[in-house]
Amino acid sequence: MKKTAEEIAADLNEIARKRRRPRPEKDLSPTAVKGDTRQVLSQLQQRRASGTLPSYDYLELKRQYELQANKDVQQAQAQAKQKRTERLLAQADLNTEWVFANMDREDPVLGHHIDMAHHFINAFDHWQEKGGAAILIYGDFGTGKSTLAGAIAHELIYQHQKSVIFQQWASVVDRLFFGVIEDQESRNLYRRALEEVDLLILDEVAANRARLAESQSSFLGHLLRRRRNLGKSVIIITNHDPQALHKAVGDFCFEAIKAFHPVDVALHGPSRRPDIGDYRS
DSSP label at 55? Predict the structure, then answer.
């Protein structure tokens, strides 16, 4: 038999009245809490006696948690290092083949310079504290100058997380003097990066030139002085020997190079690049 509308309304009112009925508050007095605690302890004792309460080696659990925590921290650190390495490599813009593994340590000329390069890398932080260091790499085209400098850069990035910029001197000139970087703010940021990066490598400085333009030699001199003041190291690559380089860059710039007390690395001899077909250069 269906209920009338009045009966349904009465049922809903009864349900609402019951919901509004205040629930009895839980007794939180010390006596009541103590009784609850005793009840819980009694239940635990009963479960332990019946063999249904699991047992834990808390020292072992602590050890496992600490091992997992250390593993998670190491994994996070490795991921962060990988991301930073990728970012540093992108900034450096290095040829991936410029690594020590691709250099011939048995070469009587290269072997000594490779050892020198590793000393430079291992003492890099020391040089920074002493005002920075410089390596002047000079010699004929194709003798391995850029490869040696690039191998140093790769090692500093992978092993020591140092920032590196490897730039052709002509590229620096184009960006700052010939409008490749158009707006002034971007040019200022680029100039600051050249000043503050951990290692600046300038390749082919004054290549095929008897003398740099006055504006270029002045800029290079100021750049090197600024890096010296900041304790930042530099590698200069050129096909000029020191005497010819002095004439090419002028007194102001050459004195800035000398202030670093640079290690000079002479790479002479035939080209170490592979020949083209049957042609021997």
Answer: -
Continuous segment of H or E residues that includes residue 136: strand 134-139
Chain centroid to Cα 119, Å, comes to 21
In the numeric block, the tokens 């997992």 are attached to: 68
Token pair 């700052």 is found at 176
Per the CB < 8 A criterion, the answer to whether 12 and 18 are in contact is: no
Provide CB contacts within 8 A for 163, sequence distance 6+.
Answer: 88, 91, 92, 157, 197, 198, 199
| pLDDT tens per residue, range 77-91 | 889 999 999 999 999
What is the token pair recorded at 87? 């970012």
Q: What tokens does 276 get?
A: 């083209």
* Cβ–Cβ under 8 Å, residues 138 and 267: yes
**Inter-residue contact 133 to 263 (CB < 8 Å):** yes
Dihedral sign from CA coordinates of 127, 137, 191, 164: negative
More confident residue, 179 or 137: 137
Q: Stretch 50-63: mean pLDDT, rounded? A: 75
Length of the chain: 281
Round to whole Å and give the CA distance between 262 and 137: 10
Instruction: Work out the percent of the chain whose per-residue pLDDT is above 70.
Output: 85
- Residue 136 CA from chain centroid, whole number: 25
Structure token pair of residue 83? 């991301």
Which whole-number Å values give the CA distances from 28 to 36, 40, 42, in the listed order? Answer: 10, 16, 20
Compute the radius of gyration of the chain from its Cα atoms: 36
| More reliable by pLDDT, 33 or 153 | 153
Residue type, 32: A
DSSP 65-129: HHHHHHHHHHHHHHHHHHHHHHHHHHHHT--TT-SGGGS-TTSTTHHHHHHHHHHHHHTHHHHHH
